[in-house]
Amino acid sequence: MRVAPSILSADFGNLAADVKAICEAGCDFVHVDVMDGHFVPNLTIGPVVVSAVAKAATKPLDIHLMVENNTFFVDLFAPLKPGYITFHIEEEKNPHRLVQYIRELGIKPGIVLNPHTPAEAVEYLLPDVEMVLVMSVNPGFGGQKFISGVVEKIKRLKLLRDRINPDCLIEIDGGVNDQNIQMLRDAGVDVCVAGSYVFNHDSYKTAIDSLKV
Ligand code: DX5
Ligand code: ZN
Fold this sequence. Notes:
This protein is α/β, with parallel strands linked by helices. About 35% of the residues lie in helices and about 20% in strands. The protein contains eight helices and eight strands; from the N terminus they run βαβαβαβαββαβαβαα.
């Protein structure tokens, strides 16, 4: 299991120090939640702050867009050279075009599914994406309760992924901790996002290690 701590739960007064600390503690990606106050009822950070995060990080950024007008935000963040940019399928009329555009910018494209969106929604996009991110909470806030119904969806998604594009990573986001991580691994998850679990822990290294199942 690869681990992507969500900096939404970091100390924003000491953001660079927290980003360095999770990288030194052995995370695989730095998960950045971009919210626009329209697609979700919360507003987070833009390219000015994320460029400071990129400077502090020694691991690739995994930018999760929760926005209307995805292309506008891709253009804002692409110059920071993140490893991945993922966008919600619920908010994109032309997902193949946007996937292709992100790839042409030299960034790995990924699709995000809200908890109610079926695995089959990404079937025809799977050949073209590097990651599918399955939300296990409604997007917008850290610290919410895991929605257990998504485990069945991950199993179905894994079957599709194994058949269509075995290199595509399956990522989970929301309510992940040391209690549900093994079940998620068994269902087929490759990368877990964890915000409050990692940043509320006394030792980031202990927390991250406990998710590497
Ligand atoms: C929610 C975000 C998550 C969030 C996860 O909209 O996409 O990345 O920060 O936080 P936890 O791990 O606390 O549920
Ligand atoms: Zn996220």
